[in-house]
From TrEMBL:
SMART domains reported for this sequence: AAA
Keywords in alphabetical order: ATP-binding, Nucleotide-binding, Translocase, Transport
Location of the ABC transporter domain: 5-248
CC per GO annotation: membrane
Protein name, per record: Phosphate transport system ATP-binding protein
BP GO annotations: phosphate ion transmembrane transport
Top-level taxon of origin: Bacteria
InterPro entries assigned to the protein according to its UniProt record, in alphabetical order: AAA+_ATPase, ABC_transporter-like_ATP-bd, ABC_transporter-like_CS, P-loop_NTPase, PstB-like
Organism, scientific name: Quadrisphaera granulorum
Molecular function as annotated in GO: ATP binding; ATP hydrolysis activity; phosphate transmembrane transporter activity
Length: 259
């Protein structure tokens, strides 16, 4: 559980378009790493390269290395489906399966992976995953009702429960709170704090307060202009990025002077 990721010299393409260029970084286990930067600089693209979701787009490819606890995720012997099981993902818009029950939503990913589960096993996994996502108390009396009947913040926590039910080592979250109200946002931030003792967490956010509240390390990406590749400008512990960055562009961005 909770693995270290080392990225070296990663270039990420959509066909001929180089969207992200030359990224090297280390992502520490049992910590939260935030990706920040202006729209279009490649945060989501880079995030998706960490669990081999990028290549599902026709023509999309990467060059370089992503190594997780010593294993090259792009090695020829590696099955991308295994990578996606180990490195889970939560998206911007909560996307529960609307007609499936709350319990079946939690089990959806796990059922794809495992042989048949006994009912008691499935019940335990539903409870522990919903507990882990801080949602159990709110839904324990309506586990057989549709997932679509929950509030937006509850649906996002349901998606987190679905992701952790697969027992990943790493959780990638792409702007997980951008569709949520402030109270639900704080609930997700509390949850992220709790989850980091068990997982490596990477979160993309446009909310500077959120990055400074939840993350241990922050990576600032930028883009020189339309059609140019996004690049990692600087990465350091979050306090340093927000109070004493080395690059002027970082300082301008975190102080709200651009982007
Ligand atoms: N499926 C795709 N096909 C072709 N180009 C794409 C695709 N997805 C993203 N891009 C391009 O890659 C670049 C980086 O996009 P990306 O979505 O990673 O940026 P981002 O930093 O996540 O932006 P935002 O903050 O708006 O979410 C952009 O130029 C974008 O137009
Ligand atoms: Mg994005």
């Amino acid at each position: 559980m909770s693995k270290r990721i080392d990225v070296s010299d990663l270039n990420i393409y959509y066909g001929d378009f180089l969207a992200v260029e030359g990224v090297s970084m280390a992502i520490e286990p049992r910590s939260v790493t935030a990706f920040i930067g202006p729209s279009g600089c490649g945060k989501s693209t880079f995030l998706r390269s960490l669990n081999r979701m990028h290549e599902v787009i026709p023509g999309a490819r990467v060059e370089g290395k992503v190594v997780m606890d010593g294993q090259d995720l792009y090695g020829s012997d590696v099955d991308p489906v295994d990578v996606r099981r180990t490195v889970g993902m939560v998206f911007q818009r909560p996307n529960p399966f609307p007609t499936m029950s709350i319990a079946e939503n939690v089990l959806a990913g796990a059922r794809l992976n495992s042989k048949r589960m006994r009912k008691s096993e499935a019940d335990d996994l539903v409870e522990s995953s919903l507990q882990g996502a801080n949602l159990w108390n709110e839904v324990k009396d309506r586990l057989d009702r549709p997932g679509a009947g929950l509030s937006g913040g509850q649906q996002q926590r349901l998606c987190i429960a679905r992701a952790i039910a697969v027992k990943p080592d790493v959780l990638l979250m792409d702007e997980p709170c951008s569709a949520l109200d402030p109270i639900s946002t704080l609930a997700i931030e509390d949850l992220i704090q709790k989850l980091k003792s068990d997982y490596t967490i990477v979160i993309v956010t446009h909310n500077m307060q959120q990055a400074s509240r939840v993350s241990d390390a922050t990576a600032f990406f930028n883009i020189a202009g339309t059609g140019k590749p996004g690049k990692l400008i600087e990465m350091a512990d979050t306090a340093t990025i927000f109070s004493n960055p080395t690059q002027k562009a970082t300082e301008d961005y975190v102080s709200g002077r651009f982007g």
